[in-house]
Queue: 2 jobs
Job 1
Amino acid sequence: MNDLAPLLTPEGRALLDEVRDTDPAQELAVATRLRREHPAELVSAALGQARLRQRAAAKFGPEDAGRMFFTPNGVEQSTRASVAAYRARRFTELGVTSVADLCCGIGGDAIALARAGIRVLAVDRDPLTAAVARANAEALGLAELIEVREADVTQVSTEGYDAVFADPARRGGRGRIFDPEAYSPPLSWAVATALGAPRAALKVAPGIPHEAVPAEAEAEWISDGGDVKEAVLWFGTEPGLVRATLLPGPRTLRSRGLPDPPVRPVGRYLYEPDGAVIRAHLVAEVAEEVGGGLLDETIAYVTADELCATEYASAYEITDRLPFNVKKLKALLRERQVGVLTVKKRGSAVEPEELRRKVRPQGPNAATVFLTRVAGAPTMLIGRPARAV
């Protein structure tokens, strides 16, 4: 899709409505029929947009996705709506009323900011991407709050705005970019821009090394439904603070500067910290909360003798501990009539699907097996989810 304009015409919009729920398996037949009455290029563009909207529903919800416009990269790289809404709330809580959204993409964050009542300057240098962001602001009735500008963000003045939000591109021709200085534009530019603004938030990859976080920044790792989505560097808030935020909620765990937890024997319960907690290096905070220690000094599993309520980890009651041995595990699962087997791993090279094929679980019962290390030794822990009353 190199030209958005035809889809914005009355004919294009009517065609988008007609192909909205097209089954991919029926796409060829639908295209053949529609090309009898419409230009082939327009039919192809409408069907392509319908596919993108179907993919985008997971991030934006079916109602918004069904009205918005997308590019393939835009669907892949845009912020999930729940995460963008959370960040917009943080901005409003900081008293922000206007934001310069740099590298705005298709406008996902700009939309969340505008819905929070914030005036937005949304900037992207790609002409098609900027056009899509503008179309999305109009489609969702937010054009009065969102000004879209096609420009190089490094040449745009952010003076007069309460805050800057920047989301540098972290994908290139060869896939994901892990070096922050290889972002487009580089992280150093984004940090310099943030330091020149009253407040700022920089979206970065969740795998960013902690040593790459500037001393002036607060670092926040965010998960949604248990999946780690991103890290954000906040400026003008609490320099040096590290936090993990779990959505929905939000539930936020703040760093307390605790030392690494001790390694201890396997207790009755195992706690699996949320991925955002692990990325934020806040496993010690969870261990203190549940009165536990680590299974192994290099593994982010916490074990304890008591079941404690925590919002930042999933708890399991451990019923069995075995040295790593597939035959013994298979025999145990057969004896317990386990047919529903969840396999989790940390510190093991064995792939869950490979183990599942080898043990061939059968029966009416369910269990969870953890492939991990205990004090350095490859170990299998078998258990079941536990919930504190």
Job 2
Amino acid sequence: MNDLAPLLAPEGRALLDEVRGTAPADELAVATRLRREHPAELVSAALGQARLRQRAAAKFGAEDAERMFFTPNGVEQSTRASVAAYRAERLRALGVTSVADLCCGIGGDAIALARAGIRVLAVDRDPLTAAAARANADALGLAGLIDVREADVTEVETASYDAVFVDPARRGGRGRIFDPEAYSPPLSWAVRAALRAPHAALKVAPGIPHEAVPAEAEAEWISDGGDVKEAVLWFGTAPGAVRATLLPGPRSLLGRGLPDPEVRSVGRYLYEPDGAVIRAHLVAEAAEELDGGLIDPTIAYVTADALRATPYATAYEITDRLPFNVKKLKALLREREVGILTVKKRGSAVEPEELRRKALPKPQGPNSVTVFLTRVAGAPTMLLGRPAGLT
């Protein structure tokens, strides 16, 4: 599909309505039937768009996804709607009323900004992607706030806008790009564009090295439902600040420059910090809230004797501590009639699925156990426990 125009025409829109929700197993039969009355290429494009809409529902919600238009890369690379909405609200709270959205993709961020009442210039150099962004603004009734332009973002004048948002391409022909200077456009260009604006937000990979964060920027790592989604470099807010934000919420943990927590013996509870907390290097801040310490100086597991409520970590009650030994674990699981085994690891080379297969070859029994493959004071260790509920 190299042109959206046929799908935007009345015949294309009617086909999209007809193929909505088509299951993969039914595609051949549906295509065969529809090709008797419609061009084969249009039928294929409609079915392809239906598949993309089904995939996009996880990011945009079914109601929006069924009205929007996507490209394969657009579905893969677009921001989850909840994250885009949070970011748009931060900009709105800063007093931003207009944003130049550079590298807008299929328009996910522009949509969130417009829904926050912000006027958006959405720019992308790929013709099909820009066409999708334009079609999405129209489909969701936001065309009055979103002006889509097909152009090279490095040639766009942004001086008249309150803020700049840049989402550089972080994928190439060989997959993900980890070097920020290999982004398209490079991070250094995006930073220069940000420094020229009153406010700016640059979306970057969550694995960005902390030393690559400019001194002028606030760095924020965002997770949604426990999954780390992105990092954002903010300009015009709090230079040098670091925060981890958890959605839904939002709940934000601010860095205070604390030293690493002390290492202590394994207590009754083990806390697994949220991935955004770990990426932001804020485990010490989370541990202070819990009055806890680390089980090992290189492992981001916090242990404590008391159970405390926190949005920044998941608590487990530890029942057993064993040296790494598959046979002993297998015997213990059999003795306790374990039928469900959850394996987590940090600081271990053992693959969870491999251990699950060896330790519980024939799951049976009503009980469940979580085993942590980790290191305690440098020694390979298995910690057994269960999620700790607060009463």
